[in-house]
Amino acid sequence: LCSSSIAPASVILVDNASADGSADWLAQHYPQVHLVRSGRNLGIAGGNNLGIRAGTGKYVLLLNNDTIVIPGSIDRCKRFLDENPQAGGVGGNLINPDGSFQSGAWEFPTVWEELLQITKLGLLLRPCYPSHPPYPTIREIDWMSTAFMLFRRKALDEVGLMDELFFIYSDETDLEYRLWKANWKLFYLPD
Length: 191
Fold this sequence. Notes:
Layout: E1 12-15, H1 22-29, E2 34-37, H2 43-54, E3 59-63, H3 73-83, E4 87-92, E5 94-95, E6 101-103, E7 105-106, H4 111-118, E8 139-141, E9 143-144, E10 148-152, H5 153-159, H6 171-181, E11 185-189
Parallel strand pairs: 1-2, 4-11
Antiparallel strand pairs: 3-10, 4-10, 5-6, 7-9, 8-11
């Protein structure tokens, strides 16, 4: 649970003020997990920030609580960051439980993109609009979901953490836009 095949890792779980006893259960059954408890629900951005601050590693993996990680994915992303010092973050496909494609990467929002999304005209461009279908090759992207994304801590330290004014949604777009403005690159790995 607390290591990958490449390097030691620590698991930090943020309990964002749950009231169902799950944090106590986790603490009892998995004492090796660093449990960070919040006294109130800080939203996605605030919860992620608590977890990021609690860690000390060279890399930070943001992982949603409803995610199942395909074996080797974390190691693959770490290797990519090790080999690409200009990369501030890396992620890949999100897949539904039935194996269908869920989401990938997007361009930064513009008024035109928002109009295409709101009116559903974007669906004429591609069936999964505004997301892109899975790309066949590694590519630089504007932004992607932080449901699973590995960041370089140095990049986060440079641009700051997630803006907690975004309780849910758009927090990752804002963060990744700030990374882009600071000349950090984000990459999509199809594998």
